[in-house]
Amino acid sequence: MKNGDHLFLVDGSGFIFRAFHALPPLTRKSDGLPVGAVSGFCNMLWKLLTSARDTSVGVTPTHFAVIFDYSSKTFRKDIYDAYKANRSAPPEELIPQFGLIREATRAFNLPCIETEGFEADDIIATYARLAEATGADVTIISSDKDLMQLVTSTVHMYDSMKDKQIGIPDVIEKWGVPPEKMIDLQAMTGDSVDNVPGIPGIGPKTAAQLLEEFGDLDTLLARAGEIKQEKRRENIIANADLARLSRQLVALRTDVPLDMELDALVLEKQDGPKLVGFLKTMEFTTLTRRVAEACECDAAAIEPAYVKVEWGSTAHGPDLDVGEAGGLVAGAPADLEGPAVSVPDKKKFRNASEDASEPGELVKSRSAAFTALPIDHSTYVTIRDLKTLDAWIADARETGLVAFDTETTSLDAMQAELVGFSLALADNSRDPSGTAIRAAYVPLGHKTGVGDLLGGGPAENQIPMRDALQRLKDLLEDSSILKVAQNMKYDYLLMKRYKIEIKGFDDTMLMSYVLDGGANATHGMDGLSERWLGHKPIAYKDVAGSGKSNVGFDLVDIDKATAYAAEDADVTLRLWMVLKPRLAAAKLSRVYERLERPLVPVLANMEERGITVDRQILSRLSGELAQGAAALEDDIYKLAGERFNIGSPKQLGDILFGKMGLAGGSKTKTGQWSTSAQVLEDLAAAGFDLPRRIVDWRQLTKLKSTYTDALPGYVHPETKRVHTSYSMASTSTGRLSSSEPNLQNIPVRTAEGRKIRTAFVSTPGHKLISADYSQIELRVLAHVAEIPQLKQAFSDGVDIHAMTASEMFGVPVEGMPGEVRRRAKAINFGIIYGISAFGLANQLSIERSEAGDYIKKYFERFPGIRDYMESTKAFARDKGYVETIFGRRAHYPEIRSSNPSVRAFNERAAINAPIQGSAADVIRRAMIQIEPALQKAGLGERVRMLLQVHDELIFEVEGSDVERTTPIIVSIMENAAMPAVDMSVPLKVDARAATNWDEAH
């Protein structure tokens, strides 16, 4: 090997586990031999070789090798017997595939290298350093953090699943330290997967900070007494020996004795007949065809090769490590990203899986398979005894995947009682191809409808609630089993009330939301089922009745309940089969893994906590609002010259446009005069007093009916707090919405609205902290549109509205009239929402021509904004969607509409969505990060995040902890975009503490 050569080193063991966990298992049709991992490995290797030889897409290797672990017994076991002792034995179906994968490597005419007593990483390290010494370049095909210590200016890594190069800057961005300090960082943080102890309580961020301060681990340990934080100092001193031991375990050896020299790793052409013979033996039809075409050989003329199968050997199979799948197991940390299918999805879609490395084809094959396979309600089982339930749970453990759904007495998860639950599994015993699913319902709280005052005595033959919950707890809290649900947040909160915390889950509703946000009106199960499975599920009203005949689910006949509930679980599992690979095909796994799924427990916990409201304050405010509305009513009657029903649109329209003859009226499809809020605002802006009083009256009466009168009715009978419910999938931009009660729409620009916030109070001894992003959407706009003036102003902490006014109108910032600043503020925020000259004119009460001049001048002063708008519209017309800075997509399919008004509306929405959506994503990231940070600071039980309202988070904190807590919250929120996005504009958060929400805001 010489200067200018390029060596590719494939982490073969990592490929095995990625193939096993990421792709649906597959059995050979002729004899049932498990070959799913072999199929995935071969497809991944073929794709890598094909791309590597294409000089038009990147580097071309001259040398190539695939490296494997020999076994789990290595020299590290001699250093530390507990090393990797927590790993389980390989699954039975994976054992025969270890040898087959090595045979596959040889069939590809590639060096297949392993060395007894050493791990694959050590062999890779040895080859990498030897090649580097010759002046050659090295690419390590892996995403394993253990290999990042090898990265240099000539040694890179490549994550083939994400198509991402990993160089020195990427290591620094991910871990906060350069590659040469990765050994020390890992020695401090340890590794729970490999059972490397590290220093307890030291995470990557803290380790990176300490290494930046002290330089290296030895210096840190020698000068540990200088560490200011008492607990951290004592912890590091006490565990210094563990850190040194851990460094021995994580440091890769570069002196492994090699059986093959560097020059022997020259990349040779594939032997077409040899490779085709192996693939035909494995019965990989599609890949056989592709290879034969590429190698220009006649597959039909080539006989299958003889391949020995080692059914019981584990000599070449290290202990299974789900962590080595690179975060592919659902429920993995939020900063990891999984591909198409993320759990051991046993024995599913044998034939369709041959092309499983291509998620788009997998989506089509699965949807087609399920559409062709109708749901059969007669196969559903009612589980009435523990023995049967235990058998189903055992099957769920074996499969590693189960759909789960609850049936309850209420849609309010905080007050609902569990009536039963349903499960769905892949039914491999009934159909070995894996296309069948079996489902069951477990009734727990059904009643007969007669027998006592509560609606009936318990129905017969139900498992006792306590026994069933114990089984459920074991199942749902086992993170090695993926639980699939539709709207998991409801089930999560419900089960949490029963002292069960669901771990390791996927949510089909959120998958659909990430994939099709804005494209579909709903992400509910029924609509998804009809769209993807061609099946219309049983309607709830067909089971529980409707209107006066409606009964609670606990009074539904168990046979009917079984058909309905088991179908829900069945459909949910089928939807998961289709939607999970769609995420990978659309390259949206990161959005789901980092922004959606991790937020489920965060929101469920917030909903469970609720917030206290002061009934006396609400009662007083209700009276004040009633008096204000009554005074306005008197004014309205005088101005109208008669009494009428102000709340009647028809009567109001007749008064305004009939009796008074005001201009600007228009009629609705029913022939009535329109009295919408916009119509009244336009009339008020034109100087008419009566419409203005009507607007004010509507606002007061709405505040009274929606909040001061209604909020006491939402107080929970047991917790005595108000528990709102957050919807994660109701907006196209990623913003959350709340309901029952809706706390997002309390007006803050009016004195009356702010008074309502005074009724939201902290409990005695506590305070509320309100942490609010300052002008986050304008900051995002400055970042994405690259506006130098705005970026500089935000960096300098300048009043952005005064700066805009100065830029536009040539008025000095010092002594600027308030009216000038107000106009600039209206334009700044209006531009984000694509405001028109008509809209701005109404807002500022000026002529439309003057408003048009303002907008024109704004774009002249900030031309980047116009460029951003035009490029965004063009992108949306081309793709049908726009993206936030974190990759979330908002779809606008009607942006190409021939209707000008529809098209214009979609264009304005498409311009706004990346701005509003990016801001929403930032606060989601903050919410996900805050609770772990508080736990780490020892404040987890003393600080509770209660509410999220637009750009604001509200916490309840013990009074003595306010000073400690506030900086942590502010820091997390201001840095929430990192490390995914390094914003060119600083985010700013204002935080205050008080005993009520209004004073804290």
Distance between the termini: 66 Å
CATH top level assignment of one domain: Alpha Beta
Hey, roughly how much beta strand do the residues contain? 5-15%
Helix content: 40-55%
Task: Categorize the overall geometry.
Answer: globular
Radius of gyration: 32 Å
Keywords: DNA damage, DNA repair, DNA replication, DNA-binding, DNA-directed DNA polymerase, Exonuclease, Hydrolase, Nuclease, Nucleotidyltransferase, Transferase
GO molecular function, one term: DNA binding
EC number: 2.7.7.7
Catalytic activity: DNA(n) + a 2'-deoxyribonucleoside 5'-triphosphate = DNA(n+1) + diphosphate
Give an account of the 3D structure:
With 1001 residues, the chain is an alpha/beta fold. Among the domains are: 6-167 and 253-265, 5'-nuclease (Rossmann fold, 3-Layer(aba) Sandwich), CATH 3.40.50; 352-597, Nucleotidyltransferase, domain 5 (2-Layer Sandwich); 612-720, Taq DNA Polymerase, Chain T, domain 4; 778-915, DNA polymerase, domain 1. It has a six-stranded mixed β-sheet. The protein has a six-stranded mixed β-sheet with strand order 7-10-9-8-11-12, with helices on both faces. Strands 20-21-17-22 form a four-stranded antiparallel β-sheet. It starts with 5 loop residues before the first strand and ends with a helix. Residues 313-357 have low confidence and may be disordered.
